[in-house]
Amino acid sequence: MNQLWFYEKHTSGYGVHWRVNQVLHAEKTKYQELAIIDTVECGKTLVLDGNIQVSEMDEFIYHEMIAHTAMNSHPHPEKVLIIGGGDGGTAREVLKHDTVLQVDLVEIDSRVVENSKIYLPTMACSFQDPRLNLYIEDGIKFVQNTKEYYDMVIIDSSDPIGPAVQLYSKEFYLDVHNRLNTDGMIAVQSESPIFYQDVFVNVFENLSSVFDTVKVCLAPVMTYTAGPWSFTVGSKKWDPERIAGDKKQINGLKYYNEYVHKGAFILPQFIKEMLR
């Protein structure tokens, strides 16, 4: 019996195979190749340009970590900007914070949003929240042109290829810094410190040249690569490692809690040495 497999190449010497039940959707959008596949191990999965972005199996780990580690470090985040995140998962987590009054989500590719609503409704449910404003445009230009000031900016971008390359640059982080309030913070997905060390270190260095405090935290996201995945948080005032004192525990989370928060910032020695 023939079996359908999806092969994801990470480096010249490392790749992963996923057995596929069914290809639910595939198209070439204005910006990228997009597919929704139903995998045996991971359930429904969003694939862009041959790379898995989210899967039903472990999306909660990624989305809870990129959202709550920073959001819980800020005492009162009311206005949040999300760049990327067209599947809606990061917005879903941000909107669980009762201090949030406004979330602006900027996604360059409308087809990511539209297909997520159809195939990934547990993530895309966030688009129904009246506090969320969706903008289909280039996140870099949005940050340059907006007159809004934010308490939190979350960069939930794809890998640094194609339309996402400039989202990892010092120039972009400077523009974000200018749109943050005086105690604002930025959270960035910063790739695998094992397989994408250059990108990981570059993000840390670029953020450190702009923000007063920059900290890295780690979490396992099984559908990305073997080993830890990293998130880097830059702050004008607050320490990302410290949970603000008046924070309430959010019920129903599957991965994140106060102990995970504290432990995620404890880095293995080889990663600490990368960042020196």
Q: What does this entry show, briefly?
A:
This protein is of the alpha/beta class and 276 residues long.
Account of the protein in words:
- By secondary structure, this protein is α/β, with parallel strands linked by helices.
- The chain folds into 2 domains: 4-55, Spermidine Synthase, Chain: A, domain 2 (Roll), CATH 2.30.140; 59-274, Vaccinia Virus protein VP39 (Rossmann fold), CATH 3.40.50.150.
- The chain contains 9 helices and 12 strands.
- Strands 8-7-6-9-10-12-11 form a 7-stranded mixed β-sheet, sandwiched between helices. The protein has a 5-stranded antiparallel β-sheet with strand order 1-2-3-4-5.
- The model has no long low-confidence stretch (mean pLDDT 94).
Instruction: Name the helicity range.
Output: 25-40%
What is the helix/strand order? EEEEEHEHEHHEHEHEHEEHH
Query: Any idea of the CATH topology of the largest domain?
Result: Rossmann fold
Instruction: State the fourth-level CATH superfamily of the largest domain.
Output: Vaccinia Virus protein VP39
What is the global morphology? globular
- Mean pLDDT across the residues is 94
Rg, nearest Å:
18 Å
> How would you characterize the largest beta sheet?
7 strands, mixed
Strand content: 25-35%
**What's the tally of helices?**
9
Question: Secondary-structure map with pairings?
Answer:
Elements: E1 4-11, E2 14-28, E3 33-39, E4 43-48, E5 51-55, H1 59-71, E6 79-84, H2 89-94, E7 102-107, H3 110-119, H4 121-124, E8 132-136, H5 139-145, E9 150-156, H6 170-178, E10 180-189, H7 197-208, E11 213-220, E12 228-235, H8 258-264, H9 269-274
Parallel strand pairs: 6-7, 6-9, 7-8, 9-10
Antiparallel strand pairs: 1-2, 2-3, 3-4, 4-5, 10-12, 11-12
